[in-house]
Amino acid sequence: MKKIDKALVLDKSKVIIKNVVVNHNYLFSLIALLLIGAIASPNFLSAANLIQLVRASAIIGIIALGMSLVIISGNIDLSVGSILGLTATISVMVYNGTGNMLVTLLFALALGGVLGLINGFFIGKTHVAAFIVTLATLAAYRSLTVQIGSGGPLLINNDFYYAGLRNIGYGVFLGIPWVVWIFVLVTLLVWAIMTKTKFGRYVYAIGSNEKAAKLAGIKVDSVKVLIFTIAGTLTGLAAFLYMARFGSVDTATAGRGFELDVIAAVAIGGASMAGGKGFIQGSFFGAIILYSINAILNAFGVSALLTDLIKGVLILGAVLVQRSLNRQKEA
């Protein structure tokens, strides 16, 4: 009996280890980067620096949570950077007009949701490919942003009003920045939606096999609309945090290139770019890993001009690793 028990324990251990390696390999990447960071800088593993890394990754990370739903469903959203830019731009105008943080937050969430809804409508209801729709809205939303701001920065023009908003961007609670608290809470909320609700199961089902999902009675078109609406709403939240952090929005550059960072974070976090597989916590850690890489490159004196090259390599590498691990899992 003891030999049988030992064999069962050994088999279970192997299954657990294989599951971690295949589905949560981002944890190994994070550990490796932390060790490299410790070599690059003796203060890299300090609590203050680690909290700063999470804080720096929060805006991209929150958008990545929404992108996770999109990618798991087998789609892509190239417009998130432009959604952030347009939402942040108009939100500054709303804040300047009202001086009310709650009104501005609700507006940013609503506008981000509407912009995402537009994507979802064309993708879900008219069945145009997500790549084409979001490529079009990337250009359209960016053009609107530049037009509204006349290509220049929009400033929060009341220092008294900005004091409260700035506290969201830079303030702390129990020694931890408000932005980090928001990032963690939103991650837990999206994780609960994806693991504890029918909607979450529908997202995975659509990404795995859309035709089978339709045959199973899932309203695929409506679910797609909701997926992109949620992604837009989370981008709206990120836009609010963006303006809270910087106190202004440069309409020519705000959010530009964010789609690359967001997709990189989701890919590094282990989501399958083919859809049907991925973990919300993977995107959370993927965003942190991405910013850890930036910090390490800076510590080693690598030119900032090479950052996008490295991100591109990371996306390709993450996809290749995921494919290899999936084949091992199926074997």
The main β sheet shows up as: 2 strands, antiparallel
- N/C terminus separation: 30 Å
CATH architecture type: Orthogonal Bundle
Overall mean pLDDT stands at: 85
- Order of neighbouring strands in the sheet with most strands: 1-4
Outline: globular
Low-confidence stretches: none
The domain tally reads 1
Give the tally of β-strands: 4
Strand content: under 5%
Sequence of secondary-structure elements: HHHHHHEHEEHHHHEHHH
Question: Which class do the helix and strand fractions yield?
Answer: mainly alpha
Could you estimate the helical fraction of the residues in percent?
Answer: over 70%
State the CATH topology. Answer: ABC transporter involved in vitamin B12 uptake, BtuC
Alpha carbon gyration radius: 21 Å
The CATH class name reads: Mainly Alpha
Q: How many helices?
A: 14
Task: Explain this structure.
- This protein has a two-stranded antiparallel sheet. Strands 2-3 form a two-stranded antiparallel sheet.
- It has one domain (33-320): ABC transporter involved in vitamin B12 uptake, BtuC (Orthogonal Bundle), CATH 1.10.3470.
- The two termini are 30 Å apart.
- It contains 14 helices and four strands.
- A hairpin with a 2-residue loop joins strand 2 and strand 3.
- The protein has 331 residues and is mainly α.
- The protein has helices spanning 2-23, 26-40, 47-72, 80-98, 101-125, 130-149, 159-170, 178-196, 198-208, 210-215, 220-246, 258-268, 280-299, 307-330; strands spanning 153-155, 172-173, 176-177, 248-250.
